[in-house]
Design brief:
This protein is an alpha/beta fold. Helix content is 35%, strand content 25%. It is built from four helices and eight strands.
Amino acid sequence: MSEVTRQLRVLDESESDEVLRVAFATSDRETVNQHFGSARSFAIYGVGMDGSRLLNVTEFGDLAQDGNEDKLAVKLEMLQDCVAVYCRACGASAVRQLLTLGVQPVKVSEGAQIAPLISALQQELREGPSSWLAKALQRNQAETGDRFDAMETEGWLE
């Protein structure tokens, strides 16, 4: 079973104005260079139309690409609030589990840089999202609306 070995989390992430949480399977925090199942680390960014920032970096121990399905559990839990995970490759079982969580796996080519991927995502947000991104935006808006509706029902006042 895979375990988190180290985690960096930005303390004020709740105050961010980013729209989406997006993960990148990366060992150097500059390129997407890891297979999802055997990724040694993920960097999660908050991405909005006009800005982005690093929210979280989580590192894991060494993992083989095939074999033990238990290695995915901690990764899936960590990514549950993300709308997408960019990686070099992703096995069929992991794809199914990610999609069930509402996380879109995005396969990228060798040497794909994180900064241009974020810029492309921001451009897509400005120009009109693709089908998976539109669904993610709707889901985020529904979850935010549900949370505020629940607070109102509980008697929260501004």
